[in-house]
Amino acid sequence: MSNKSDYMPQNKDEFLKWLRNFLEIAIANVNHYGINEEEIKSLEAFTVNVPEKINEAVEASNIAQQKTEVKTDELDNCKTNFLRTFRFMQDSPKFKEKDAEAIGFRKHHTPPDPHTMKPIVSQVTPTLENIIIDWVKSGMEGIFIYSSYDGNKWEKIGRDTRSPYEDERKNLSDKPEDRYYKLRYIKNDKPIGLEGDVVKVLAEIY
Asked: Whole-model pTM?
């Protein structure tokens, strides 16, 4: 009894080779198997369309990552420049505290409870290269990142002090996989407060 089974590669590069090989053999055996012309044309169309769609997905993934990096840099530059202007105003002998309050640089607030505070994930961007996780710093030193494949068994996969965090781990197999993430704030390099809400992402990093 044969132990052979049907096979179709999941890796995109291997799949494209498999696709072209299939078409070549099918064309060479159209008469032998009685494959009609319309079926061959349909297969030929896929050998053109599939690579195009894959390239579009890769390009979109790269653009998404670039936009995230541009956004982070622009936001940092914005904060630096506005803070510099405020410090210039503050150093003036004419400075008025009420102006700082009107601007919003002075705000009365209750410090977060270190026992109940938890991180907030503002955005998750899955790409073909990594999973980009934007998180809110809230004045803390940073975060620990925990990940799971089933939402039950967790492991700490990283530490981050500047959003976004990028998970570049490859998939465990050549198939899409679910990943779960949760964050926890750090103080003096130790976890503090509560774990953030769990986020679920479909990873396709091969």
From this structure: 0.55
